[in-house]
Amino acid sequence: MSMSTAHGAAGDTPWLVVGLGNPGPEYARNRHNAGYMVVELLAERMGGRFKAHRARAEVVEGRLAGQRVVLAKPRSYMNESGGPVKGLSDFFKVPVERIIVVHDELDIPFGALRLKQGGGDNGHNGLKSVTRSLGSREYHRVRFGIGRPPGRMDAATYVLRDFSPAERKELPLLVERAADAVEAIIAYGLERAQNQYNAMPA
């Protein structure tokens, strides 16, 4: 690939793909851990295993869509995700526009994805922390819809509950679709990836 292509490797500057979640088995299947689930699938595709990194994260290095990629799961709790993301971006010398953060999103219905670059945090504590630590909002986001809590359930309670049995049946396909969307951003850029993945799946 020519060095001058818009999304070609700049030298061999990697992409940093961060899945947000909370560490520990008690959180593993929570709605708030959708980001972890997506990067775990990408690691399988890469044939790699997560290893501890000094930036308080677990990482896998490899290639996706023909480009160098670092996958990461912060080992801090959600509201302190920014420290590990900043540490990894410094360590691997990744500019903010080559960072993709995968996270759960209350304002999007379950089953839908939204891809974007920049914007606010919508009250998401993980994004708040990442934006604060990077000093920029201009990273890419793959927003994994989890929908709003039923009735009067508090949002903070809802995100820390496991996906429902009905949702769990669909979850593997949705995680796969989100992983495909990450690869699409890396392969041919945000705009084309948005056209493909921002519509509701048929």
Automatic annotation (TrEMBL):
Residue positions binding tRNA: Y27, Y77, N79, N125
EC numbers: 3.1.1.29
Biological-process GO terms, alphabetical: protein quality control for misfolded or incompletely synthesized proteins; rescue of stalled ribosome
Catalytic activity reported: an N-acyl-L-alpha-aminoacyl-tRNA + H2O = an N-acyl-L-amino acid + a tRNA + H(+)
Site (Stabilizes the basic form of H active site to accept a proton): D104
Protein name: Peptidyl-tRNA hydrolase
NCBIfam families: pth
Superkingdom, natural source: Bacteria
One GO location term (cellular component): cytoplasm
Active site, UniProt feature: H32 (proton acceptor)
Record lineage: Bacteria, Bacillati, Actinomycetota, Actinomycetes, Kitasatosporales
Family, as annotated: Belongs to the PTH family.
PANTHER family in the record: PEPTIDYL-TRNA HYDROLASE
Site residues (Discriminates between blocked and unblocked aminoacyl-tRNA), renumbered to this chain: N22
Complexes and interactors: Monomer.
Protein role: Hydrolyzes ribosome-free peptidyl-tRNAs (with 1 or more amino acids incorporated), which drop off the ribosome during protein synthesis, or as a result of ribosome stalling. Catalyzes the release of premature peptidyl moieties from peptidyl-tRNA molecules trapped in stalled 50S ribosomal subunits, and thus maintains levels of free tRNAs and 50S ribosomes.
Subcellular location: Cytoplasm
The entry's keywords: Cytoplasm, Hydrolase, RNA-binding, tRNA-binding
Main location as per UniProt: cytoplasm
Annotated GO MF terms: peptidyl-tRNA hydrolase activity; tRNA binding
